[in-house]
Amino acid sequence: MPLPTRRKQRTMATIIPERRPEWLRVPAPKGQNYSDLKQLMRGQSLHTVCEEARCPNIGECWGHKTATFMILGDTCTRSCGFCAIATGRPLGVDWEEPKRVAEAAKEMGLRHAVVTSVNRDELKDGGASIFAATIRWIRRLNPGCKVEVLTPDFKGDADALRVVMDAKPDIFNHNVETIPRLYRQVRPQAVYQRSLDVLQLAKEMYPGTRTKSGFMLGLGESEEEVLQVMRDMSEHGIDILTIGQYLRPSFKHLPIQRYATLEEFAAFKKAGKEMGFRHVESGPFVRSSYHAHEQADGANANA
To answer: For residues 14 and 73, what is the distance between their CA atoms, to the nearest angstrom?
Structure first.
């Protein structure tokens, strides 16, 4: 049986009314596919990062029956300054969850499933065993379905990472999120170099696995700092790069310093290609799992 849902540890914060550029607005989610998918997720007692992180692409993605499954509950042990997911003390591990995710992926007819999670630093393996079980269940019930995982850093634990990699995900993703100078404000419990090392180690464990990472613009970074992060990522063997605009979930989250222009996103995409990334997705609405199957196809086409 699925574990009961813990009451959120935060109160609902007021969404900021700041004015966004016209090209940075999306229609409200609606439609039959959106309604059907929401009912499916609730029926299976599953969470999606689309809802928990208030992703701006939820209307488009759910309208096309694509979603990013969020395993290991909906309460995170970390308190990143940009993230809308609740922080607190999580419940125990639900070992039936991997099978339910696979069943939902099958019902949706997915050919590329994306699985992420909250941070579970209180667990010995950081939740790696649940990631591995989810990968295997998806493969068992959905032969031919590609599986992409977006994992925490597991505190740099190589044994925990090995558990995930031994399940052989098609794409291993872990986001650096921002430039190292801003980590104390943006990712206070994370370490920039550790994130890069996790991505490099995943590639070393299984060289045939595509690695992927991304970061946000609009938190106060300079152009040169962004380019240096991209160079660091390239030197650590990352195949797929995603760059998006930070959108403040509420007043209690980090403020937006600026909106990057479409021309800036295009320039970083060009720079990324010149650095040798197999695929670069760069734009205001880009998120790790947005058009994930197209990102994977792009990387394979440039292999």
So the answer is: 24
- What tens digit of pLDDT does each residue of 121-137 get? 999 999 999 999 999 99
Tally of CA atoms within 13 A in the half-sphere of 239 that contains its CB: 20
What is the per-residue pLDDT across 241-283, written as a single tens digit (0 to 9) for each? 999 999 888 888 899 999 999 999 999 999 999 999 999 999 9
E-strand ranges in 195-247 read 210-217, 240-245
| Distance between CA atoms of residues 161 and 273, nearest Å | 28
- Strands 68-71 and 47-48 turn out to be antiparallel
Domain boundaries, the chain: 30-301
- What does the alpha-carbon distance between residue 300 and residue 303 come to, in Å, rounded to a whole number? 5
Which residue in this structure is represented by tokens 């990324």?
272
Rounded Cα–Cα distance for residues 131 and 137 (Å): 10
Token pair for 200: 């490099």
- What are the angstrom distances between the C-alpha of 80 and each of 115, 151, 177, 178? 20, 15, 10, 11
Tokens read off for 141? 């019930």
Supply the DSSP string of 228-240, one letter for each residue. HHHHHHHHTT--E
Q: What percent of the chain has pLDDT over 90?
A: 60
Give the count of beta carbons closer than 10 Å to the beta carbon of residue 144: 6
User: Is a pLDDT exceeding 80 seen at residue 154?
Assistant: yes
pLDDT at 11 over 50: no
The hierarchical CATH code for the domain 30-301 is 3.20.20.70
Phi and psi at 284, nearest 5°, equal: -60, -35
